[in-house]
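Working notes for the structural subgroup meeting. M.R. asked for a predicted model of this chain before we commit to crystallization trials. I am recording the input and output together here so anyone reviewing the notebook later can reproduce the run.

Input as submitted:
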Amino acid sequence: MSKQPNIGKLVRALRQELNLSQEKFAAEFGVTFPTINRWENGYVAPSPLAIQRISSLLNELGERGQILKETYFREDEQAL
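Returned structure, recorded in token form:
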């Protein structure tokens, strides 16, 4: 089972939590707007390096980041 749809939803929720447009979120990651769009729509999964950055951002958000993780991944699926 692919985790890409959940990763996309998590990326969108994280971006919205940080109150960033797709363009600004892309700049934070050093990628293009279409890349963020493809992540959010589940067409492509973020790279391992991007996953590490997403995980760091979630950790920086503390409880809210943990809630996002729990919302989009069951406990046994959590890789972030």
